[in-house]
């Protein structure tokens, strides 16, 4: 018996919980009634137990899902982020002189070339993952962008770099939103941010050590007549391609198509998702649904929040080596000094994600982390001593890197139905691509070494986060109150669902 057949009746709505209200309610509202004794009934039987949370079986199943999902997705995305963000290291490793990248806006154009196809292809790519399957789709595009990185090491013009980065953007468009969507289909709302943080922050940590890797590869400068920056592209492309081949065998598919859980464990996954939000079963995407989803203002607000979170992330990743060189550091020092702030950001963001999942207070953390980022940016721009400026890198990275998984979780926990979450994740992450373009053109070479206009443009994005998050928190609280007073219909069309604030 296939997993899909065995689960065909587990994701449908005949499962009910008997409560003190003396009426059956849908099982997806179970989380509202966990304080008392729980009896479960179906239309056929009052004896059948549907879902009891926090059992030893459930905890073992969650650990198994964690191990099959988070490490391999995090490893692949680590190289995705390294591949897209290493232009700053390539620049200071000799590409600026070899390809005359220092002239005019060539460097910014090469940065921007990645993001145009990345933004345009997010939604189609996130629909494709359901058509081709997670392991096939994600491993194939990763293999192709690894080959693209490898090929860039042979290019001799800045226009060629811009063109291959555009191809890289088209291929990577299908990865990050697909991973966020896949993770959101496996976990309940109170488990989601920590998993998104672990997945994403693996790449942040790798990004910090990418400077050390880049320095090691740069030391090959002149070997076999190849420049150091070419060795960086050559080796990182090969590593990505090799990891993609392994990923085909390792990546877990969606719950209804997975191969690593038993039928009973898969039933438990489906039941707990339905208890949390009632959308364990995939609902087919249609044009009418797509139009309706894109008319939901919440998706666009979440997109603006993600835009504001990614601007400082991209800016610091792309320009911190250049900023550090502008402070008088050598190539070696500028690359090595870029790593410690990323490590600190990972530790802080994991603690923040754990706290958010435990408390459910996502809005307050997002606002606080945006303010922390602003404080760090102001230290970078206006402090008189180098040590204080360097400390500003720590604070700004801690704030913005923690907010990226926080905003993704804020979005995913307030969107119901798999098809809608696929569109929402893609749209929101596309705004992150806009953030990459924005950061590329706000940190201009003529503003070196302090980049004050770019820092203020980045701070404006953090102020936008604070304002929009306050507004959304008010809106969500108001709608929750209306639902409790029976002044409105079900939120997101789902009985028992409340917005997460």
Automatic annotation (TrEMBL):
<feature type="transmembrane region" description="Helical">
    <location>
        <begin position="167"/>
        <end position="187"/>
    </location>
</feature>
<keyword id="KW-0472">Membrane</keyword>
<dbReference type="InterPro" id="IPR036259">
    <property type="entry name" value="MFS_trans_sf"/>
</dbReference>
<dbReference type="GO" id="GO:0022857">
    <property type="term" value="F:transmembrane transporter activity"/>
</dbReference>
<feature type="transmembrane region" description="Helical">
    <location>
        <begin position="69"/>
        <end position="92"/>
    </location>
</feature>
<feature type="transmembrane region" description="Helical">
    <location>
        <begin position="330"/>
        <end position="351"/>
    </location>
</feature>
<feature type="transmembrane region" description="Helical">
    <location>
        <begin position="363"/>
        <end position="383"/>
    </location>
</feature>
<feature type="transmembrane region" description="Helical">
    <location>
        <begin position="230"/>
        <end position="251"/>
    </location>
</feature>
<dbReference type="InterPro" id="IPR011701">
    <property type="entry name" value="MFS"/>
</dbReference>
<feature type="transmembrane region" description="Helical">
    <location>
        <begin position="104"/>
        <end position="125"/>
    </location>
</feature>
<feature type="transmembrane region" description="Helical">
    <location>
        <begin position="389"/>
        <end position="410"/>
    </location>
</feature>
<feature type="transmembrane region" description="Helical">
    <location>
        <begin position="455"/>
        <end position="477"/>
    </location>
</feature>
<feature type="transmembrane region" description="Helical">
    <location>
        <begin position="422"/>
        <end position="443"/>
    </location>
</feature>
<protein>
    <submittedName>
        <fullName>Related to putative tartrate transporter</fullName>
    </submittedName>
</protein>
<feature type="transmembrane region" description="Helical">
    <location>
        <begin position="137"/>
        <end position="155"/>
    </location>
</feature>
<feature type="transmembrane region" description="Helical">
    <location>
        <begin position="199"/>
        <end position="218"/>
    </location>
</feature>
<dbReference type="GO" id="GO:0016020">
    <property type="term" value="C:membrane"/>
</dbReference>
<feature type="transmembrane region" description="Helical">
    <location>
        <begin position="299"/>
        <end position="324"/>
    </location>
</feature>
<dbReference type="Pfam" id="PF07690">
    <property type="entry name" value="MFS_1"/>
</dbReference>
<keyword id="KW-1133">Transmembrane helix</keyword>
<keyword id="KW-0812">Transmembrane</keyword>
<keyword id="KW-0813">Transport</keyword>
